[in-house]
């Protein structure tokens, strides 16, 4: 014992020398010097279960302590090393060694923790019913003990060697930063510019070029207006403002936008132009069909097409792209943004408009907008003086100003700003790696947790659009995101990381899809630089792109799926024994892609350290049993595949956090022991053919996301298995509720305690006549959700009445409600009492004959029914005859905020609409043949669409001076327009009258 203590003395002194640097706990310094994944593993190794396992395995705890301390010793000088690496290749090499050894340590400790978990689970399964776990029943092999100790010793030796080198390189822990960055929590995830700083003149000049009449000079139906400028100068943002200018809208008949990027794919770009021009998606990737459709859309019309971020100078690509554009009218324009004049050589463009750098004042305005988003910079006079000097160093590049402004806005302290101004990184020449010093500074001063998350995004090619939530799941699988304070969900912590990077301009919203995100080209270049030798990619054309001499040490691999991916494309990965990520990225094509079976059966099982495996979108039908050897796997995405079943060995992937099986049309069964995956947090089987959930789902207590739960007919797959899933978040769809035979099973589901659910869908089978009505009434009553739920959707419910909770005022957070095909219900619930309800859809309630007092409930006595409702839809109400509103007689609006009203396929409706709809802007009435009541006065109505109704139903609608669009179709007995009424339609822009057989006079 004395000898052991003596050995610890130098280590303890080492630990003290490292740990005395630690600041207060509310800072994220700990994250800035320690790998998040390693911290969690160290914590695991000190837990009771793991400690017991270590004792049984004869693994010396002292060896693990030595590993921890040698790691701390090196990581303490990380800040100093990162700043000096650009001027010293030796320090850059030292950092690579440290990063590589850290990965090795993570892998080794992960194997150790996984083996301990396996023994724990197997011991528990062999002692079912026994309260005391017998660890001696299951134990690791002696060869495992010897191997793991040898590997830990090897890593410790490497870290000790690296520690000696840090002293020779002059790296110091105390010589690094004098400030600590706290985690930034922006009030909004994105700062929206209301105008372009310093670009008013540029904008006007470009619009002049687009609107000028140059038909005499045109050699074809269109001319090309190029905008030339360096990366990050603001070409795309300027093009967006031009594209949305009112003058452009009025001058051109058709507008379209397409991002070309560094890979000019004619099919993809043509499809993007067509979708932008038509405002709808097109499934085909057939170039001929796309070109024909685009040609028809542009035929004899003056168009503006913006091709953003053009790189390619291939004349064949350009000639193929413009073929359908020749159908347009003269005066059409194509605006091209590009970095290189060579890209314009094949398009006979006019002289390019060269976009210059911002002035110092404009650069400061942009910088201060991001540094002081909610305050005036003049209230921080000293910071403004320093900030203007920093702004000058951005050299007029908007992206640099935005990035640094966001960085410095997270800490409004003079020392912090002064250190940025005096940083040595400003002196690094841009030409060395193509990265602006300002962007390198922004990255360098990120907290360590954000650095790893950002570097991981180097797996995405330029202009790749990614989903926030799916990216967070990948970060979690890689160990970049850990449990937050107060047991905050890892997903929520990951979203905080994402929003922080978004607010610092490392990410930006996609212009095509606001729910997705992209990285600016220069930011993408930065990610490629900082990830360096840890990443492999494959562009689909040139094959595997690998860092020279470092293939075996790479950790992450991504590639865009091809239509046919052969084994040769991946065979070099056999050398990459440390690979953690195999990520197939969604291509621009739709439909199935095909992957060589040899990749699945021979290659993937060899990659034993994989944490992320995505084969989404491939036409694969099975996985080999050897997939169970990937013990470190956290993320398995088989969505949109032809998989028929999973091997039983998947149930031994105890670390698995995410399992995506959604949209697997051929998947009919799951392994029997799937619920052994106790670490599973995201599980999605929606839109597959699985008849019911795996048995004993209640064991998966860590589930956070379960988009669909299919109720089975037997015990173990019944709805009561939801009882312990208290952490469920987001969306939950309960299907096949006809299998709930005992209503008390529904009560066991305990939905009232699942306070994090936002959306709840309840669905019975469509053949409701075969189901017991009283059971369904009780089941719906027992499935009452928590009052915080925001969206509820009930389908094919077979009871004659709705439950008391539906419409209860306590559901004050509900904003959306849909009742679909509840064919036995005679009356609507008192939904007017829901104070926050904005959208209400009632469809297929064929037994409802009247909508009256029951619809409004207690809200009538308070005079405030439906205080927030904006959209109301009635559809397929075949027996509905009358709609009454008792408040009409008092002159009080029952729907004070209603903006859109849809009444469709209600053939027996005869009664009038409520008299007081003061905010209604859109009214659609279709297939209501018996309805001939005149419309009430609707002062704000802008769009009216009436089809297959009586002629008198138009009533005073034609007196509405605010009407912009009027569509009349198949109106019986509609003979003429009254000329006196037409004079009121002073704002009318669109009039469409079709199939009115009796019409004989149009004023």
Automatic annotation (TrEMBL):
InterPro entries: Apaf_helical (IPR042197), Leu-rich_rpt (IPR001611), LRR_dom_sf (IPR032675), LRR_R13L1-DRL21 (IPR056789), LRR_R13L4/SHOC2-like (IPR055414), NB-ARC (IPR002182), P-loop_NTPase (IPR027417), Rx_N (IPR041118). Residues 459-527 form the Disease resistance protein winged helix domain. Residues 719-844 form the R13L1/DRL21-like LRR repeat region domain. Residues 33-125 form the Disease resistance N-terminal domain. Residues 1-20 form the signal peptide. Residues 593-664 form the Disease resistance R13L4/SHOC-2-like LRR domain. This is Disease resistance RPP13-like protein 1.
């Amino acid at each position: 014992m004395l000898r052991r203590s003596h050995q610890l003395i130098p280590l303890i002194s080492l630990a003290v020398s490292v740990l005395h640097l630690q600041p207060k706990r509310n800072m994220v310094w700990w994250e800035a010097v320690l790998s998040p994944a390693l911290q969690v593993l160290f914590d695991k190794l000190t837990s009771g279960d793991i400690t017991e396992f270590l004792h049984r395995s004869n693994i010396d705890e002292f060896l693990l302590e030595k590993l921890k301390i040698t790691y701390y010793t090196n990581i303490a000088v990380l800040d100093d090393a990162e700043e000096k690496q650009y001027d010293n290749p030796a320090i850059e090499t030292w950092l690579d060694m440290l990063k590589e050894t850290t990965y090795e340590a993570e892998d080794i400790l992960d194997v150790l923790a996984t083996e301990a978990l396996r023994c724990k689970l197997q011991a528990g399964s062999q002692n079912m019913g026994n309260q005391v776990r017998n660890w001696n029943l299951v134990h690791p092999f002696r060869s495992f003990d010897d191997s793991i100790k040898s590997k830990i010793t090897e890593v410790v030796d490497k870290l000790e060697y690296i520690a000696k080198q840090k002293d020779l390189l002059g790296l110091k822990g105390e010589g690094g930063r004098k400030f600590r960055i706290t985690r930034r929590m922006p009030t909004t995830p994105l700062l929206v510019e209301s105008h372009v700083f310093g670009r008013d003149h540029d904008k006007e000049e470009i619009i002049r070029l687009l609107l000028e009449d140059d038909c005499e000079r045109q050699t074809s139906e269109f001319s090309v207006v190029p905008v030339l400028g360096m990366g990050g100068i603001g070409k795309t943002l300027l093009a967006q403002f031009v594209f949305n200018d009112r003058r452009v809208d009025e001058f051109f008949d058709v507008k379209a936008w397409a991002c070309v990027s560094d890979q000019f794919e004619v099919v993809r770009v043509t499809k993007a132009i067509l979708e932008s021009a038509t405002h709808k998606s097109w499934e085909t990737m057939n170039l001929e069909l796309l070109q024909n459709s685009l040609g028809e859309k542009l035929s004899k019309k003056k168009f503006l097409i913006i091709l953003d971020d053009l790189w390619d100078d291939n004349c064949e690509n350009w000639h193929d792209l413009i073929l359908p554009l020749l159908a347009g009218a003269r005066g059409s324009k194509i605006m091209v943004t590009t970095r290189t004049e060579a890209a314009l050589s094949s398009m006979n463009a006019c002289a390019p408009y060269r976009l210059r750098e911002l002035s110092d004042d404009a650069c400061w305005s942009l910088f201060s907008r991001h540094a002081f988003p909610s305050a005036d910079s003049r209230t921080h006079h000293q910071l403004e003086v320093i900030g203007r000097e920093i702004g000058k160093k951005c050299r007029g590049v908007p992206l640099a100003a935005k990035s640094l402004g966001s960085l410095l806005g997270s800490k409004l302290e003079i020392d912090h700003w002064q250190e940025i101004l005096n940083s040595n990184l400003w002196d690094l020449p841009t030409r060395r790696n193509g990265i602006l010093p300002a962007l390198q500074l922004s990255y360098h001063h990120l907290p360590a947790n954000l650095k790893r998350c950002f570097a991981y995004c180097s797996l995405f090619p330029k202009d790749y659009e990614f989903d926030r939530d799916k990216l967070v799941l990948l970060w979690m699988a890689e160990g970049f995101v850990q449990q937050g304070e107060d047991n905050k969900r890892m997903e929520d912590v990951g979203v905080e990381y994402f929003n922080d990077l978004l607010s610092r301009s490392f990410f930006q919203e996609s212009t095509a899809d606001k729910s997705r995100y992209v990285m600016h080209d220069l930011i993408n270049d930065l990610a490629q630089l900082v990830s360096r030798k840890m990443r492999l990619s494959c562009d689909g054309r040139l094959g595997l792109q690998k860092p020279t001499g470092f293939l075996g040490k790479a950790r992450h691999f991504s590639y865009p799926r091809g239509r046919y991916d052969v084994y040769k494309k991946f065979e070099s990965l056999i050398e990459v024994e440390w690979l953690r990520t195999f990520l197939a990225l969604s291509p621009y094509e739709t439909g199935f892609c095909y992957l060589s079976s040899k990749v699945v059966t021979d290659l993937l099982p060899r990659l034993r350290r994989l944490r992320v495996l995505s084969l989404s979108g491939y036409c694969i039908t099975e996985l080999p049993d050897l997939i169970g050897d990937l013990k470190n796997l956290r993320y398995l995405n088989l969505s949109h595949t032809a998989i028929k079943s999973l091997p039983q060995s998947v149930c031994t992937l105890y670390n698995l956090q995410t399992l995506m099986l959604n949209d697997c049309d051929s998947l009919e069964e799951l392994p029997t022991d799937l619920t052994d995956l106790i670490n599973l947090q995201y599980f999605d089987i929606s839109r597959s053919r699985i008849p019911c959930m795996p048995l004993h789902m209640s064991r998966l207590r860590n589930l956070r996301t379960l988009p669909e739960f299919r109720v089975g007919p037997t015990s173990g797959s019944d709805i009561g298995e939801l009882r312990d899933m208290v952490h469920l978040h987001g969306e939950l769809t309960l299907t096949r509720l006809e299998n709930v035979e005992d209503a008390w099973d529904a009560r066991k589901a305990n939905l009232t305690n699942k306070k994090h659910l936002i959306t709840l869908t309840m669905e019975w089978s469509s053949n409701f006549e075969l189901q017991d009505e009283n059971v369904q009434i009780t089941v719906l009553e027992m499935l009452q959700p928590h009052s915080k739920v925001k969206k509820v959707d009930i389908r094919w419910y077979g009871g004659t009445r709705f439950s008391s909770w539906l419409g209860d005022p306590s559901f004050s957070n509900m904003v959306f409600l849909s009742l679909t095909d509840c064919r036995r219900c005679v009356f609507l619930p008192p939904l007017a009492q829901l104070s926050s309800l904005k959208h209400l859809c009632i469809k297929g309630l064929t037994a409802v004959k009247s909508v009256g007092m029951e619809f409004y409930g207690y809200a009538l006595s308070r005079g405030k029914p439906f205080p927030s409702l904006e959209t109301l839809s009635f559809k397929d109400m075949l027996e509905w005859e009358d709609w009454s509103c008792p408040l009409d007689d008092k002159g009080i609006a029952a729907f004070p905020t209603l903006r859109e009203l849809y009444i469709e396929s209600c053939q027996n409706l005869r009664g009038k609409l409520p008299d007081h709809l003061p905010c209604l802007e859109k009214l659609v009435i279709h297939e209501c043949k018996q309805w001939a009541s005149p419309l009430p006065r609707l002062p704000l109505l802008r769009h009216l669409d009436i089809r297959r109704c009586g002629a008198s139903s138009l009533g005073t609608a034609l007196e509405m001076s605010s009407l912009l669009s009027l569509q009349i179709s198949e109106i019986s007995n509609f003979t003429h327009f009254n000329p006196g009424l037409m004079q009121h339609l002073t704002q009318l822009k669109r009039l469409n009258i079709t199939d009115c057989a009796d019409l004989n006079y149009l004023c």
